[in-house]
Amino acid sequence: MEPISNQEEATTKRPTPPPLPLSVKIQLVGLTAAIDAVERSDGTVNRCLYGVIDRLLSARPSPRPDKSTGVRSYDITMDASRSIWARVFVPTAGAGAGDPLPVVVYYHGGGFALFSPAIGPFNGVCRRLCSTLGAVVVSVNYRLAPEHRYPAAYDDGVDALRFLDAHGGVPGLDADVHVDLGSCFLAGESAGGNIVHHVANRWATTWQASAKSLRLAGIFPVQPYFGGVERTESELALEGVAPVVNLKRSEFSWTAFLPLGATRDHPAAHVTDENAELAEDFPPAMVIIGGFDPLMDWQRRYADVLRRKGKELQVAEYPGMFHGFYGFPEIPEATKVLQDMKAFVDTHRATTKPNAVA
């Protein structure tokens, strides 16, 4: 009898999908259908159709606090020439009892090629982040692939931090809301989690020493999008079983984002001991992993790289959770992960009181 290969073994031991609320299943079907409808086989995005979907899924900013979270939001322009803007989320007045609030700079997911801060699920996540963490959240609209390949998203992510540092805070806040740029955190899921890592390292390497007041106190790569030419056990075992991520969609995302001709072993996708030259001031990280995410093996390897490099690290795993689970408040773990993130923020804020800036 012929021995069973690793690939065959992985595909024959597929786990059973976890039970999900019907509302979540319907949303996941709609989300994946929209993604597959706009991603073309030639590696481009049908921007005409995408524009229609974007308008249908987008939420407007809410100048007045909403009833569910008490959070208000508004948009600011960071660089009109590159269409870099951000949606700012502000907690209920008095949330910080007069103390300056931490800032969370957020990078949305979408495989580097899709979506914006206005898309409903990301708009909702940022509202809940703002309310739970008691922080001002700045959700950045970066340029999308394949029209803007690597390193455009990283450049835009760093420039968003430079914008905040140059302004000494977040423009547009009410006079009684102050922020602590010395307690700035980065967060993002999927492709946004990948951006979080690379922006944090670029900032720590090049910009931190000359920054006026912005200091990265920590980062949240939430189910970050990493990969490689190798197909891992979790990718093979969960192919066709787990929602959102599959090999075809991953291949599209990397082909759209990476430089022409590059493989998935490019350092943007494949973070290893050999190519991860982490800055001495690389911030503490809380890496969030779902136990039903095809990318979990890559995420664990990424965490191992940070650990071996001697960086402060906390790994939070949520068994049975699919890629992007924390965007669905119907799932209890979506609340639990925000509570865990709040604990991380509370223990990593700047220890000295900075001058309050608005």
UniProtKB/TrEMBL annotation:
Coiled coil (UniProt feature): none
Region (Disordered) location: 1-21
Domain Alpha/beta hydrolase fold-3: where?
104-326
Gene Ontology terms, MF aspect = hydrolase activity
Top-rank taxon: Eukaryota
Q: Give the matching SUPFAM superfamilies.
A: alpha/beta-Hydrolases (SSF53474)
Q: Which Gene3D superfamilies does the UniProt record give?
A: alpha/beta hydrolase
InterPro entries (alphabetical): AB_hydrolase_3, AB_hydrolase_fold, Carboxylest/Gibb_receptor
Pfam families found in the cross-reference section: Abhydrolase_3
Q: What is this protein called?
A: Alpha/beta hydrolase fold-3 domain-containing protein
